[in-house]
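Rotation project, supervised by the postdoc (A.L.). Task for the rotation student: set up a whole-complex structure prediction and record inputs and outputs verbatim in this book. Inputs entered:
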Amino acid sequence: MIKIAVDGMGGDYAPHLVVEGAVQAADDFEDLEVIITGREDAIKRELYRHKVRGGKISIRHASEVIEMSDTPVQAIKKKKDSSLAVGIQLLKQREVDAVVTAGNTGAAVASSTLTLGLLPGIKRPGILITIPTLHGISVAIDVGANIDPAPEHLLQYAIMADIYTRYLLRKKKPSIGLLNIGEEESKGTETLQEAYKLIRVSGLYFIGYIVGRDFFTGNSDCIVCDGFAGNVVLKTTESIFEMMVALISKEIQKDWLAKLGAFLCKPAFESIRRETNYEEAGGALLLGVDGVVIIGHGISSAKAIRNAIRIARESILEHVNDHIIEGINSRLNSNSSKTIPISRVNP
Amino acid sequence: MIKIAVDGMGGDYAPHLVVEGAVQAADDFEDLEVIITGREDAIKRELYRHKVRGGKISIRHASEVIEMSDTPVQAIKKKKDSSLAVGIQLLKQREVDAVVTAGNTGAAVASSTLTLGLLPGIKRPGILITIPTLHGISVAIDVGANIDPAPEHLLQYAIMADIYTRYLLRKKKPSIGLLNIGEEESKGTETLQEAYKLIRVSGLYFIGYIVGRDFFTGNSDCIVCDGFAGNVVLKTTESIFEMMVALISKEIQKDWLAKLGAFLCKPAFESIRRETNYEEAGGALLLGVDGVVIIGHGISSAKAIRNAIRIARESILEHVNDHIIEGINSRLNSNSSKTIPISRVNP
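Outputs recorded:
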């Protein structure tokens, strides 16, 4: 059995939708056992509502709750019995194989890093997200764990993104792009220029610098970026979708013909909503820590939680962390032996 | 008369649409004289097509053209007789009051900074763009001139954005937000934390940190950001709109009812396109250099060029640079005297 701890109190709709998502996942995957951490009474009440009594879902009591407004330091130092900390401890003791949380991202990163430690050879963890593009799914790393990365960190992100894309997205030779403000080699900060040189001789399929425009084109399977820019892009993107929807709704209300038109277009819009929906992706992976940790969106629905658990399960089954250790070992010890010509064309 | 030099060879559709836009502007504004710089024969040919012979439009020959792929150094050192350099020289000599270019941004920034110099007290120039939001027009600075800003530069961007918003957007008390990865004071790099302290005591109406999500909500009239993140957001935004349009077109083609629906929605979509269109904005301002310089989008249409010239004209009429000098003087010399309580609510 695969055992996954779910932070029952993390997220804007916890424990309600978190428990619902955990129940869905336990139903969908036969090999799965879910341990929900958090206030026993609150979680029990939710489980009763779903008529779950024992079986594949259990509760591990934790008396404290980390709020979205807590700083990572506050969360870790002052709330040692939080639902997050208890989950991470279970993973540390190998009582579970993974942790899923939709709570405070900063606290999840700090708690995982301090409690679990990093994989051998890894210098800094990174948050990886999947992105819907015009040509399928791409990934971006880092989107907020490391806002001032060294060149070496960016190289390690490239290696981890390559592994994730090979094993979880089944791409044979993922292309790697390094986010910059221009495609020319002369552009960008010294850190980026140094990272460029490191990735270029890493043996990865490196297509060079990419720009913000490439985020949703799918030109690059893996987008490597600093956590500051990655985070800003991620949050801006969300607001653009909201703005588009608000503008469209406002305009359409003005005119009954447009209202009819919108009604007729609805299936097309629904299909796009599915394709671009974060619920399908379910969560971001915190890569580089010694354990599988998935960080869901704060506004996670039950479906998003269910899918975050699915990704945790797949990461365990595919031994993503073992492959990262291998990848870091082989690439960092044979840096200059293999070089691949730089091209922007996919193989 | 207001005299504006237009870089006749800069932009993807130069000189064709650049000349067309210049002709439109000269027609629309009686007080305007336009000097187009670039290859005389090519520009003359375009002017003939519009039946312009003399009058308010003239040509200043320049033998060289800066390509989009040229680095700023190449552009400045090797192409001293480029259409851009000739325009900037005219501004330096005060033969014109402003320069408009849709060419290579890096070259425009470097050439303006080196040739014109900076306004008294300004340490680094910044590129300001206008953003369509749910609540009217906001501005963001910097979106690419300065990818590694010091705290002091960010303060100066805040002061310049405040001036622009007061005088060109007619907002009485513009709110200033500093782009970060979270709204809490503890978040972000040391540079940002230092900038936060400086802006807080500047006397500006500072609402604190904002995140990517706030870019299109209009919560903040002025968004101050580092040039790297600003540039990435700007370019990502463009690609999202393209992706949305491509996805919608693809989905709608599948189904004739949806096609009919899309037809009925068309006026609503057209209205949104107008509201969010870069053509209306026309161009970005390079603020902080000693002269009015407008940098248009590389793909500028005739209308975008016309509107870039309009913004140049307004900046001249409103004496934006004089107000910046005053603003820098008064704010930097009376830093600690005025503080305004931090609030996220607009007055």
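Student's summary: The longest strand of chain A covers residues 126-133.
Supervisor addendum: Residues 1-116 of chain A form a domain with the Isopropylmalate Dehydrogenase fold (CATH 3.40.718.10).
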